What we know:
The chain has six helices and three strands, in the order ααβααββαα. With 112 residues, the protein is α+β, with helices and mostly antiparallel strands. A three-stranded antiparallel β-sheet has the order 1-3-2. Strand 2 (65-70) and strand 3 (76-81) form a beta hairpin. The longest helix has 14 residues, at 89-102. It is globular. The mean pLDDT is 92.
Amino acid sequence: MEHPQFMCARFEKALEILSKRWTSMIVYQLLNGPQRFVAIEHSIPNLSGKVLSERLKELEAEGIIQRDVYPEMPVRIEYKLTEKGQGLAPLFTEIIGWANQWIELPPHLPES
């Protein structure tokens, strides 16, 4: 693989999006399928509702997730990955493989 002297603008933008705190964890969680706000919030320890709301808006603006509103009583809102968001699945599969091979966990942390 050839490495240019400077970063490709698209690569740089992709890293900017995915490296923002909690963003990759949210996308990873949504790989399991559509979820409501509370389910996402409870699945990621230490993620505040305020930050989750901000990240979901940012991901929606980037076209990575879609927010679906169901006119029920009470209103039901679900978040799901768009085709663009689903395109990240192989990246996460590769990261999981790399982490399993190279990242050592402290003895007190369980394997997932």
